[in-house]
Amino acid sequence: MFSTEDARKLARKKLPRLVFDFVEGAAGKEVTSARNESCFDEILLQPRVMADVSQRSLVTRFLGRDYDLPFGVAPMGMCNLVRPRADKLVAEAARLHNIPICLSSAASSPIEDMRKWAGENAWFQLYVGHSVESSLQMVERAKLAGYETLVLTVDVPQLSRRPRDQRNGFDMPFRIGPKQFFDFATHPVWSLTSLICGVPKPQNFISEDGDDKFVRRASRAGADWQFLDRLRDIWPHHLIVKGVMSADDALRIQRSGADAIYVSNHGGRQLDSAPSAISTVSKIRAAVGQGFPLIFDSGIRGGEDVIKALASGADFTMLGRPILYALGAEARVGLNSLIKLFAEDMSLAMAQLGVANVEDINESVLLERSPTVGEKLNTSLQFASSQA
Ligand code: FNR
User: Fold this and answer.
1) From ligand 1's centre to the CA of 266, what distance in Å?
2) What percent of the chain has a predicted confidence (pLDDT) above 90?
3) Using CB atoms within 10 A of its CB, is residue 282 exposed (0-12), middle (13-18) or buried (19+)?
4) Quick check: helix, strand or coil at residue 45?
5) Could you identify the atom of ligand 1 that is nearest to the CA of residue 320?
């Protein structure tokens, strides 16, 4: 495994189609998901020579803490589907590499366990599901468990239609018909280990009376402006709002007292005509001003992408699908290799850019960005209207 793409290919072989597609799939025709990646390739970096880059450091300060690397693990529900105890493996990796891991509300591991496994590296992500009160109970649990960073996800007012999941009959709880049975039977290693360890299910929506309350397609639109104000009042630690793609929204979130904004289009899993997330960062940076903490995900597939996100205005980044590909490919070994590959690629690219520290990565390392199709269209429309 020498790249995210290697991990993806291996995971594709080893995982049942239903599981692999749950990870890789996205909304609609999956155009935004693809655009997230291709837009990174259009960004060029400016090589510089003869700087003293013999010693380089990737240590990054974010929200008052030093992390060894400028990236962490994005919140992802049901990671244990990819590999039994995946959440625990990620937690161990987070401690080992001193990076944050954000546990999803929809995770198949309890809030309290993740805090024990990952220690202070654990963040918690909140969905406001069909009941605002049960979401607030989760916040209380996170507070009691000792979490100091809460990420409120706001870009899933309603779960989007993901055709791959529909085709595969993916749902929660699992329904196993002939199609799924064949899929599992042709991936016996995954099926046996999952059987032995127990089929994963969302752990954090379970109420005290034992009812499993997670309804995947229920509205999550309770995460509105009033809720944000309420959350700000009751959550005394760091509060990050995730899924922001508009400068106007970013400004309002900043005014609401959030500590950071998390620029993301959910990896293209929500709106298939959204701009690439990376093309939005600089606009949001310009709106919130220098110094306001910005975090970024969606489309990062290598160390150079992390540099591009930081140079575009992010202070920190998160990895999504690459983490699950690595786990699906080679479990703990795959995960650690992937994190090391990202770190090594970043460090080597920094050497080429004449930059020794992460804090010195800024827009001066960007050479130019060839216009995206959307931008070309915009320019030609402007030209046409100026001619008219
Ligand atoms: C996600 N994502 C997500 N986000 C969130 O806030 N809560 C969640 O429970 C989930 N669940 C989830 C499951 C899976 C399988 C994936 C792939 C993604 C979105 C995630 O945090 C992140 O925004 C995207 O994964 C970033 O895109 P890339 O880089 O993975 O393409």
Assistant:
1) 5
2) 82
3) middle
4) strand
5) 30
